[in-house]
Structure prediction request, 1013 residues.
Amino acid sequence: MAQATGKRKAENGAEAQSSPPKQAKAATSKSAEVKPAAELSAPLAAGVGSESITCLHDVSYPDDYQISEKTEPLVEKKPAKEYPFNLDPFQREAIKCLEAGESVLVSAHTSAGKTVVAEYAIAMSLRDKQRVVYTSPIKALSNQKFREMTEEFSDVGLMTGDVTISPNASCLVMTTEILRSMQYRGSEVMREVAWIIFDEVHYMRDRERGVVWEESIVMAPKNARFVFLSATVPNAKEFSEWVAKVHKQPCHIVYTDYRPTPLQHYVFPMGADGLYLVVDEKSNFREDSFQKAVNAVSTTSNSSKENGKWQKAPMRGKGNGEPSDIFKIVKMIMQRQYDPVIVFSFSKRDCELQATQMEKLDLNNEDEKKLVDQIFWSAMDCLSEDDKKLPQVSKLLPWLKQGIGVHHSGLLPILKEVIEILFQEGLVKCLFATETFSIGLNMPAKTVVFTGVRKFDGDQFRWLSGGEYIQMSGRAGRRGLDDRGICILMLDEKLEPPVAKAMVKGTADPLNSAFHLGYNMLINQMRSEESDPEALLRQSFFQFQSDRALPKLEKRAKELEDERNSLVIEGEEEVKGYFGLLEQWRELKRSIRNIVFSPRFVLPFLQPGRLVRVLGPEDEEDDEEISTSMTIKGYWGVVVNFEKIPTATKDLVDEEDGRSVPEQKYMVDVLINTIAKNNDTRRKAPRPIDMESPGEPVVAAVPLSQLESLSAIRIHIIKDLRPIEAREKCKKTVREVLRRFPKGLQMLDPEDDMQVNNKEYKKAVRRLEAVEKMITDHPVASSPTLPARMKILQRKNNLTSQIRVARSEVRAASTLVFKDELKSRRRVLRRLGYATADGVVEMKGRVACEISSADEIVITELIFGGNFKDLPPEQLVALLSCFVWQEKTKNAPKLREELAGPYSQLREVARRVGKAQLDAQMSIDVEEYVTSFRPDIMEVAYAWATGAKFSEIMKMTDAFEGSLIRAFKRLEEVLQQLIVASKSIGASELQTKFEEAVTKIKRDIVFAASLYL
Prediction:
């Protein structure tokens, strides 16, 4: 494992770049400090204010690395690039590592100045006549970086899949996907690369695309050096150790928590009128101020949340024509000159709805309006006259003239870019944006507003994580322009202080691997001479993190075993036997209860007012005394009502006549006494207690399985038990009944009263009687030390269970991760004819390895099944749209006959592929897999391929323009891959058809050139 040694002293604090004198002075007041590696592994997000620019510098070495003991000074080279400002310590430290020819990870906040390090690496490579590759996570960012770097350096090229410019340049800007495909193809460029810059490397934790980073880092040339630029991650040391291990070279970490512009965090309670400062610029959390803000959250906001209108709250006013909260807050920001402002929302539609609330705000003067108009129409010049009339184009221009912008993935790409340019030029003063704006694009504002702190992550609505909040709030505060950045959190739900603290003072999210296997990766690995899939898995960051966890897991298992072995029980075997009999007794009681309290027998006796005993919660506290006798804790309650609840139909067999009957589920409303709310806030369900105890009587829904026994007594109850007085009266009556029967209430007899007399019941009762006799006659039954010995045994049993889990975790961590899935995927490839048993890639495999932008197996099956053979290019385009569309659309048009047929064939092929994966023991839901190929835009894609105008196809769907363009661009990407695949197997007819399909879709606004190029 890579080990941490070596530290360097960073120089004294320096002036912040382009800073006003005040900030420069503050920055020099404390020397930058270097902290040891041990501290790097601890959470590092303790705030460093503008009073000190600290940087942590450490280095990870691979095993057996010989650290040079040379003491003579290095020959000083002329700097590759001079800067008109003093560099910060972290920038100087990183540049020293580059000049020493060693890899470096720079982990710093947004706008701290990481780009300086990347620029220096490029300048140094060009000075030393070396080749350098700059990768970024998204095409838009690559385009932007290409533009910036072309202004700075002359010899720059661009490769994004959409565009290729100067592919032989010394400095190549590309997306990480392009880098990976060049590595698989054994591109000549890869042999010449001396430096690879991975911008935004924390993207590696992205669920879908993170694996691309891991693959490209592992497969990078062994003589290459790296510059990793990342947002702050607490486990930067772990990442550098992985790089050092995989590439057998030192990897430095330069980490800074320094934020050039300190942040202040405010809370704006919905419906209120003021702001509350909750975190000051020195990162102090103000508890009292936060509490005031929480108390000020209006009741109207709470009711809107309960009605499921979370995101709509900022748009709501107080009625009577009053302005909405979002209007009030933006107006206040403008009056206090806190602009420009980015207002973050978690929905594309909400961004636009909020922008419409700004009608009465005019933030630009006449000269600025003219300038906006000029920039806007010169950008739109590349569009056709029809495209210039698109609703989205005409809708945005009036907003932009007002100084209001909208930025989300549903916008036309050209509009997104023009809005970015206007924002950079200070002509958009208020921008409504989704989370994606906070990724990569270096466009800070003075103020950032959050319209809500809950987001839907694909599975559920959840609070923002500290890391997400840091990433987005990091946009606040422009270096050299603002002395502080301002974050405003709009609240319309009472937040618990710990949740809010975790957000506004939270630490960054750790960089965890999102590695997963794919067929394209697997086949490419199998056909490449220099690599094999197992080697890639062994070298993945995922495996590295698993291996690191192994010593901890082994230590934990050993500690549990030692603790278990230290527990000594006198006469252990006898106590175990007694304990086993008690377990049998409880199990038999449960079986009998399940029969007696089945709907068939119990429903006639659940009249309102009947006294019943309800079982106590099964999660009794660990320290509660363990029962050493035949007792089951139950609590008295009163039946109020019962109801049948909807359930999945599941047939049961009737024991009497063997007929199958549908299962019925019922809930019984029972009035029980519970712990008062303020004493037991942890529990979601009410916890029953004795009727004699002080508490709160509530009506709780109890499943039949939780009833323990039925009393023969019924009391009169009031129909409306909603008022607390009515429930208290009922509780008083029960107490009186219990007082009158000190020896216990008479119970309903299952056989005599309830007519339960089936075979299973009688058999269980006979067995129960036998077990009860064995318990009574057991030699330890009367021992006074039995309770103490039973408690130790229970602890021992719990430890045995924990040891079992710990040992299985150790086994899982010590074997190759994904080993079973790798076997299953290889089995699928073998059975479907993509590779031989010896791992030789067949013709089908050669096609599949060229397809990385869609489901490579299903597309290959369609090719070899002849499904594309008779389809004209327009239908081909429509069919392939099912592979690139993932969004849900409400009103998808009905498929015409010539499209319904091919789609039906696609589903059959997908079902066959799904079943093949299931047969190969892969975890897959076949029907879910089949429905993942969505036909929602087939008609739209068909119309586009037949020459329809963009404005016409937009009338056919409720999808956003930008979403549709993204789908068409990805469709073109798939077609280009299919052209290469057809060429590789000599299928010239198919190749021609795919080329024709490309010409039919590659036109007009969908493929308008980027404004950055």
